[in-house]
Amino acid sequence: MLTCQNGDMAKGPTPREVARAENLERIKRLALEQLAATSAGELSLRAIARELNIVSSAIYRYYPSRDELITDLIIDAYASLADALEVATSNGRRGPRRRWLDACTALRQWAIEQPHRFGLVYGSAIPGYRAPADTIAPAGRVLAALCAPVAAGQAASGRELDHWAVPGRPLGSQLRDVAGQLGLVVSERTMLGIVAAFSSIIGALTLELNGHFVGGFEPADALFRAIVEQEADRLGL
Amino acid sequence: MLTCQNGDMAKGPTPREVARAENLERIKRLALEQLAATSAGELSLRAIARELNIVSSAIYRYYPSRDELITDLIIDAYASLADALEVATSNGRRGPRRRWLDACTALRQWAIEQPHRFGLVYGSAIPGYRAPADTIAPAGRVLAALCAPVAAGQAASGRELDHWAVPGRPLGSQLRDVAGQLGLVVSERTMLGIVAAFSSIIGALTLELNGHFVGGFEPADALFRAIVEQEADRLGL
DNA sequence: CTCCAGATGTGAGCACTGCTCTCTTTTCTT
DNA sequence: AAGAAAAGAGAGCAGTGCTCACATCTGGAG
């Protein structure tokens, strides 16, 4: 009857558990380094095992398949991004518009610093891989963090986004659902504005990081800034 | 001194040249089928050779490497998309706004019908692959096709997009350069609006096709429509 | 027509991958 | 101390991209 699954008298993790956790962390770190180095989805479990001075088959004691590793990396990436955004928007002394700009800037900075992670999350970077359900919760945190300044701005001003048409039949309830899932109290029109702004920013970063701006924009700082400012206007910030 | 490289008295392509062209086409077709089937970048030259009843090494007579094949697929995809957009916007009897909506609808339809191709072009879909310079010309055709209705609308109304700030130092010249490369005569502010709208749409499709809308939006028809309408407004159409 | 160069196809092989076995060693619990 | 569970070792399977030496076919020059 499994006495000590950390049940009674919590005696802390055993050395073995510690070692395992450390190895899991090490594996993920090496995997990220590998993705960053090859700048693409050439993730080799055997190479990780090699760097870990471990025989190749031993890595399957930690991850049953390559996809499981990738899933973990994706979840971590969402969390990392959400953290960055929450930090960026946490400065309560700044106004909603400024916090929105801060959030967008932080998002771009995060993406530029680790494009492989951005690709992991917002690109179809990995062959044959389809994100499982475990990733939708952390994905929500990102959107929620981005919403915070907008919701605050809305609550403060009380104005409505009158240039957005009020959403019709299917869209309205979808927007209400999503807002509900994220725990936000905003109007459907505001929610629509947020999703549109998010799409716009993800699109701009996608194009920039995948090299669609080379030869034209690039550096795309000014372009991104202009887009973000425009989105702020459109969100009534 | 190479008499007949189709120089004088054009005797048409030799049977061998015809066979080669057919094989190239066959290879690309099989490659696309494979990408569509696996829904990801698991493109195997050996598998293609197998389906072609050809020994695996023989495929290197046609493409020196996997990346070369992918590059060809990307170029074809750009061309296919540009064709679709040009057809969609070619109805001169329709007004600029309607043509813009048509173009966006066509873009989404193209992307949904062949998500692997969209991923090829606007995602970082292939491990270790970086698009070479050969792809930037066909990429321009896509943007140009999307621009056409906007430029027409601008020319017709003569109004300026006064809600866009006039672009500053680096951005202004970048915008002018890009407009020049695409052969468009539009103001910097209009060009900025077009690029922003393009980003927005690519972002929305990226999110939709990569499954970021599942559980919330989806079907995303209404959401996409709302975004596109809003972009039309913002473009003064 | 013959003949020969160049294009095309063959088959073996290298180094790599993800993943599955069986077996041994280590570690923790009882 | 003993037994169970976890972790590692090592061989192996089927697959990959790609190279090379060799054989075959084809088209145009003489």
What features would you highlight for this structure?
homodimer; 237 residues; mainly alpha; 9 helices; disordered N terminus; DNA-binding
Written overview of the protein:
The structure is a homodimer of 237-residue chains. Helices cover 64% and strands 0% of the residues of chain A. Chain A is mainly α and 237 residues long. The model of chain A is unreliable at 1-10 (pLDDT under 50). At the A-B interface, helix 7, helix 8 and helix 9 of A face helix 7, helix 8 and helix 9 of B. Chain A binds a DNA duplex (30 and 30 nucleotides) through residues 3-4, 14-16, 19-20, 44-47, 54-58, 60-62, 64-66.
Could you describe the largest sheet of chain A, including whether it forms a barrel?
none
Q: Please state the structural category of chain A.
A: mainly alpha
Listing every helix as H and every strand as E from the N terminus to the C terminus, the arrangement of chain A reads HHHHHHHHH
Spans where pLDDT lies below 50 across 5 or more residues of chain A: 1-10
Q: How far is the N terminus from the C terminus of chain A?
A: 58 Å
How many H/I helical runs of chain A?
9
**Which of globular, elongated, flat, extended, rod-shaped describes the shape of chain A?**
elongated
Q: Kindly provide the radius of gyration of chain A, computed on alpha-carbon positions and rounded to a whole number of angstroms.
A: 21 Å
Largest interface: A-B, 60 and 60 residues
The tally of beta strands of chain A, per DSSP, is: 0
Quaternary organisation of the protein chains? homodimer
How large a portion of the residues of chain A is in β-strands, by DSSP E? Answer: under 5%
The average pLDDT score of chain A comes to 88
Helix content of chain A: 55-70%
